[in-house]
Amino acid sequence: MNIRKFAAIAALGLCAAGSAWAKDYKVGEVEIDDLWVRASAPGQSNGAGYMDIDNDAKTPDRLLSITSAAAERVELHTVETANGVAKMRQVEDGIALPADTEVKLSPGGYHVMFIKLKAPFAEGGTVPATLKFEKAGEVAVVFKVKPASYNPGMSHDHGAMKH
Ligand SMILES: [Cu+2]
User: Fold this and answer.
1) Is 8 inside a domain boundary?
2) Ligand 1 center to residue 47 CA distance, Å?
3) pLDDT, average across residues 56-79
4) Among residues 42, 48, 98, 130, which is most buried (max CB within 10 A)?
5) Ion ligand 1 — residues with CB < 5 Å
6) Is residue 2 part of a domain?
7) CA of residue 10 to ligand 1 center, whole Å
8) Mean pLDDT of the chain
9) What would you report as the CA-atom Rg of the chain, rounded to the nearest whole angstrom?
């Protein structure tokens, strides 16, 4: 009974993964998925990008850098809170990827910073980029442009509530 229930849930999970828009990327034993940015607000010249990085290797790796033709410069950032004020700063030595661990770049934490966009991120569009890992090497990826109101932590669409 329990096993059957588990199998049903597992099957549902597979279906969801198969129908999701997310295209998975793999280089060496590092898997990258769910790459996204928000659509640019008018006048906005920078944009943040997010993704899940899964290091399946038995040894640590590191996301060293990211390049993209969509922006003049691309940096890796983190967010730190000091005296109640959240500030982002560049992580000079990249993002550590411990062995056999998934690291999420998500709002409020690690993110990719696209600086001086060549063109605004348009909803439904894509942003190509290249990730460089210390051990796994380089991989070309594509970020999906989500609505400006998109928030992965929300189960409903705030965009629909706009007046
Ligand atoms: Cu930033």
Assistant:
1) no
2) 8
3) 97
4) 48
5) 77, 88, 113
6) no
7) 36
8) 86
9) 17
